[in-house]
Amino acid sequence: MNEILIIGGGQAGLAMAQRLGRRGHRPVVLDAAARPGETWRRR
Structure pTM? Predict the structure, then answer.
C-alpha cells in the first residue's frame, strides 16, 4: 500500500506506526532523537 510519514517517535507516533503497519501501510517514523521512544527514556 502507501508509504506514510509520521513525524515524532514518541508514544503516539509509535502507536500510530504500529496500527498503520497492521493495516498494510508502510509507516516511516521521523524523530529528532537517535532512538525510537527516546523522550520516554529521558523522563
Answer: 0.78
